[in-house]
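seq:
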Amino acid sequence: MLDGKGESQPVTVSQSRGAPQGRDANWPAATGAGVFTAAHHLYTHGREPRPAPGATQGGAKVDDQKADDQKVRAPRSRARMLELVFPKDTNYHGTAFGGWVLSLMDKAASVAAVRHASGNVVTARMDGVDFHVPIRVGDAVALDAQVVKVGRTSMTIRVDVYREDMPTGEQELATTGYFVFVGLDEHGKPRPVPPLPGGQDTSSADPDPEARP
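struct:
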């Protein structure tokens, strides 16, 4: 700081709680040599200090509370996907390979199974896959996978595949199939999985148009 003659004078900080020499009594107290409290930040910058990481507010950590407010729970027994059909995904007819469609169905079904089981699963078998109409280059493929039946350790997932003409937005049911998955424990052994709400079996239900991606 400058004295009355315009010469610089050092400002020192006391080791004990008190004001630095050369400052008025309103200067915030120091907690140690060269270390000031949050009041020093408020005094010099004129604003409240931001909460430190891990600080609590109302009994909850500030960072954790903000993160919890932004979380949204995913549907527990369902999964939806959307894919585009490129030339590499088609045969010489210009329609999607059946194997490529099956791989998408297996992927969607596995997500629904993992969500329902809340853990690891494995594909046990595929049942009754029906191809209704071809899917062509440039189409979008919308998949809706839903757990429709549950045993002790197994789950049956129905997957409906729709082809979409993107310019018009029209969708048509192209493929339907059923996949059976088994829940696994940490040792890779079958484990019990939760039942469906009310124990309902919806394997024979019609496709749900409102559930399309």
